[in-house]
Amino acid sequence: MSAGGSMRDVVMQDEHPEVSVFIPAHNEAGNIAPLMEKIDRALTTRGLRGEVVLVNDGSTDTTRQEAEACAARYPYMTVVNHRVRQGLTAAMRTGFRRVRGDVVVFLPGDLESDPEEDIPKLLDTLAQGYDVVAGWRQGRHDSKVFASRVYNFVSRLLFGVTAHDMNWIKAFRREVLDDLSLRSDWHRFVLMIAASKGYRIGEVQTNYYPRQSGSTKYGFSRIPKSFLDVLVVKFLLTFSEKPMFFFGGLGGVLVGSGTLVALALAAIYLLSYGQRRPIFDLAVNMILAGLLLFLVGFLSELVVSQHERLDDIERELRESRGKD
To answer: Are 25 and 106 in contact (CB under 8 A)?
Structure first.
């Protein structure tokens, strides 16, 4: 019996899946069929009701055709196509809206992860009481290892998340996905966002396999952007509910410092018989900048207040739909 046939015996499309496997794919021709065979064997071996949601993110090769051929073979597989490439975060948003399982496993489409090995590892670790489990690549020796280690170190330092590999395979409980809000290029910060909301983060070692088909979609050019994104996410996670703590605190420092400098320079100005000093203008500008930051803080508080009201309305709508 074929791999596809074995899963047809245990999974029906209209059944509620226990596990959803989400795969983002861009130009992964040659990888989709063997990837699905491995996922099929992993789910069959565990006797799980599963589904696979593959988001084809504007591929320009034969990824779409290969994925749709697999969907015809595996009735529990769904393919969603983006007309143009929108990026991994957009693919995640699309895929996360489609998955139905109580647990969602995130896998790349490049076969650098082996689903037969990794799906059981992720699920077993998740069953230990974690809300999110991240894979930790072992045996990786490519050119991006150093940059990845620096990024993971900075992330652990800023966010307090002890995982070693922030951007690898993951398994989530359903409620975690329902609580995630991902902006552009925030796929790298899923663990940090989940940890900031109080979810328990686990980690399990997984083997890394060099890709056999296609090429990597990420290079060193993303490092400066990643650094800026880290700062933005850190700011939002720390001060999003109380922006006045940041803007007001910084504004207070500037107003206080500017006032002290201005008073000192005013005395020097008088003693110098009216000789104007450029640093006096700097002190005045510091005071003005501080006052502007206070204003930004107040405006941010208003934005956050409206955002919280929208969250409450959205939560009430979800609850009302659940009761219906």
So the answer is: no
β partners of residue 19 = 50, 103
CA pair distance 59, 26, nearest whole angstrom = 5
Single-letter code of the amino acid located at 79: V
- Dump pLDDT digits (tens) for 136-183: 999 876 656 666 677 677 777 777 788 888 888 999 999 998 888 776
Q: With contact defined as beta carbons under 8 Å apart, do 63 and 25 qualify?
A: yes
Count CA atoms closer than 13 A to 77's CA, side-chain side.
26
Sheet of 19-25, strand order: 77-82, 50-57, 19-25, 103-106, 170-173, 132-138, 201-207
**What is the DSSP secondary-structure string of 155-200?**
HHHHH----S-TTS-EEEEHHHHHT----TTGGGGHHHHHHHTT--
Helix (H) or strand (E) holding 209: none
Instruction: List the one residue out of 67, 70, 96 whose CA is nearest residue 81.
Output: 67
* Residues 175/207, Cβ–Cβ less than 8 Å: no
The kind and range of the H/E element at 135 are strand 132-138
Token pair, residue 140, equals 């990786």
**C-alpha distances out from residue 259 to 136, 282, 286, Å:** 52, 11, 8
pTM reported for the whole predicted model: 0.70
Chain centroid offset of residue 241 CA: 20
Cβ contacts of 22 within 8 Å, gap of 6 or more: 52, 53, 54, 55, 92, 95, 96, 99, 104, 105, 106, 107
Task: List, for residues 195-243, the tens digit of each pLDDT value.
Answer: 888 999 999 999 999 877 655 555 555 556 666 666 666 666 666 666 6
Tokens of 87: 């990026």
Listed residue (91, 87, 30, 95) closest to 61, CA to CA: 30
First vs last Cα of the chain: how many Å apart?
42
Q: How many helices and strands in the chain, by DSSP H and E?
A: 11, 7
